Description:
Layout lengths: L12 E2 L6 E2 H5 L3 E7 L5 H12 L1 H6 L2 E7 L3 H15 L7 E3 L4 H5 L14 E6 L5 E7 L7 H16 L2 E2 L10 E3 L6 H7 L5 E4 L2 E4 L5
Helix pairs in contact: 2-4
Amino acid sequence: MSIRLGDIAPDFEQDSSEGRIRFHEWLGDSWGVLFSHPADFTPVCTTELGFTAKLKDQFAQRNVKAIALSVDPADSHIKWIDDINETQSTAVNFPILADADRKVSELYDLIHPNANDTLTVRSLFVIDPNKKVRLTITYPASTGRNFNEILRVIDSLQLTDEHKVATPANWQDGDEVVIVPSLKDEEEIQRRFPKGYRAVKPYLRLTPQPNR
C-alpha cells in the first residue's frame, strides 16, 4: 500500500524497545516522526538515531514524538541502543519498533524489491495530531537524513496550519512568508498581516512571518 500525503497514518500495535505500542494511542495529540532503518547495527543509522536523541528538546518545543523502526527484534534494539549511546555520546530517548514480522513495514510500504526485498528502505513520515501524513521522504542507504530539514518542514507545517501563508524556497523560521493566492480580501489581509506586505507580482505577496 502506498502512503500519500493527507492519508491517515495506518494504526498498528507492535513491540518496541520500550514495550508494546499502540501507535495512534501513543501519538495522542502530538505530531509524530516515524522513520525506518534497514537493520540494527548499521553505521549511518547509528548516527541518525544518536542525532535524533539529541533533538529531544527541539522536538518537545514543537510537540513532536519520534519513533524509529527496524526489522530486528526488541532485544537486538536494546543492544544496539547501548552502541548508539556510547558512540554518539547521547542517550536514546524514544522507542524503536521491533518489526520482525514486517507488519508495520508492509503497512507503510517500507520494503522495496528494487532496494532489498528483506530489509526496509530508509523512509520518514511526519504525522500531524489528526493522524494525517504530512510529509514523506525516502533516502538512499548511502545518505544520512538531514534532521535540520525535518525540523524546518515541521516549523513550516505548523505555521501554515495556523495562518493563511506558505513558505518560499529555502525558508527558515523568521523569514518572510507568502500570502496564499486564495486570500483576496484586503480588509482580511490587513487584519491577518498588520505589518503589511509587498507584492512582487499580484500572485506573489511577501509578508513578515506571523507570530507562531
